[in-house]
Specification:
The structure is a single chain. By secondary structure, the protein is an alpha/beta fold. A seven-stranded mixed β-sheet has the order 3-2-1-4-5-11-8, sandwiched between helices. It has a two-stranded antiparallel sheet with strand order 6-7. The longest helix is centred in the N-terminal third of the chain and has 20 residues. β1, α4 and β2 form a beta-alpha-beta unit. Helix content is 30%, strand content 25%. The chain has one domain: Rossmann fold, CATH 3.40.50. It is globular. It has eight helices and eleven strands. The model has no long low-confidence stretch (mean pLDDT 96). S-adenosylmethionine (SAM) binds next to α1 and α4.
Length: 266
């Protein structure tokens, strides 16, 4: 598959998903317009005070997390390659009266798309890295977008999660498989109707590759926190134990399902 082929397939797939997501209960746009934050409390605690900080949200989807940072006082830019997602994000900004800039771009072209601007915080949230073929290249892009002393804050699904079977008891996929995998699913992960453009290409990135990519791009790892819970019911075996907290049932051995990290440009 050529470079432009996976990009086109994924962009079309995300344009289709966006139409479904915007009408979904999962993304609850009416609640967001009414003032709901989509950021998890641990993200706010770990990022700290964002007042007046230049924050870039890579792969911002419909901009809810981006605008939630704006509600906390950040000067935000969101970037996503899906024109449909960015259009929805701009609409949300207008409807909520929040100041924000949203840009359509492949993440790999972000530096040029943003005119070489530098940011205090680059934020990336759940479900982003699987869409990128090369985390070393991604980390170099992130480093190029950070001002000196600025930090990447990443909250993501743990690479181990992706190799587990639905019951979470068995390893069913290869942790070290780094070739892109092509999927053909006519449903997205939210409620809502079927998709039309159903094919996507995704990649698995072992934790070692992610950390080595960040260090290789000249960033200093400040922390990496692994968690035995997820804000989303990403496996059928997970049970809800609190608002936005899904875990394996009591008595099961702990497995990292999500993680967050901060890496800083010296
Ligand atoms: C799972 S969503 C991120 C969800 C986000 N954390 C949220 O809940 O709003 C992944 C996003 O990555 C975007 N994306 C995928 N590949 C991309 C690329 N190469 N460049 C820019 N955006 C990309 C998609 O359009 C989609 O909006």
């Amino acid at each position: 598959m050529t470079n432009t082929e996976w990009l086109r397939l994924n962009r079309e797939n995300w344009d289709d998903r966006t139409a479904v997501h915007a009408a979904s209960d999962f993304y609850d746009l009416p609640g967001f317009r009414a003032g709901r934050s989509t950021l998890r409390p641990f993200e706010q605690a770990e990022v700290g005070d964002v007042t007046g900080r230049r924050l870039l949200h890579l792969q911002c989807h419909m901009g809810q997390d981006t605008l939630s940072w704006a509600r906390l006082g950040a000067r935000v830019t969101g970037l996503d390659f899906s024109p449909a997602a960015v259009e929805t994000a701009r609409g949300l900004a207008a409807e909520t009266g929040l100041a924000a800039r949203f840009v359509v771009s492949d993440v790999h072209d972000a530096r040029a798309a943003l005119g070489g601007e530098a940011f205090d915080i680059v934020y990336t949230g759940f479900g982003a890295l699987v869409w990128l073929p090369d985390v070393a290249e991604w980390a170099r892009v992130v480093a190029s977008l950070l001002a000196d002393g600025g930090s990447l804050y990443l909250a993501e699904f743990h690479p181990l999660l992706y190799v587990l079977g639905d019951d979470g008891r068995t390893v069913e996929y290869d942790y070290f498989q780094t070739e892109g995998e092509t999927f053909d699913h006519d449903r997205t992960y939210t409620d809502g109707p079927k998709l039309t453009r159903t094919v996507s290409v995704q990649w698995h990135h072992p934790m070692g590759s992610i950390l080595t990519a960040l260090v290789g791009a000249g960033l200093r790892l400040e922390f990496l926190r692994e968690r035995a819970w997820s804000p989303f019911p990403i496996l059928p075996a997970l049970v809800r134990v609190g608002p936005e907290e899904y875990r394996f049932p009591p008595g099961r051995p702990g497995v990292p399902l999500t993680y967050s990290l901060r890496a800083t440009k010296a």
